[in-house]
Design a protein that fits this description.
93 residues, mainly alpha, 4 helices
Amino acid sequence: MAAAETDWSSRYGAWCEEAENLAKEASGEPLVLLTVLRQLEQLHRNLLDGPFRASLPNDRQKLYALLQSIENSGGWPYIPRPQLKAFMEQLVS
């Protein structure tokens, strides 16, 4: 593994851990956690529309390999929004 890849993995791991710690600190604060979820959704959009699209392969073989990798690793990283029905069900339970 290249040094740059190891550094990226380490930094990414620390970033994820910090995000989880912040979420734990906000436990019981639904408005704060909603703000975090909104920011994550915006980050997802920004990454998709910016760096991800810019890094897509230009040839069909590489694009096909990427699509296979996405499919084999669990599909597209979609961030679902809860429906109002789910909130209503929470009220009656």
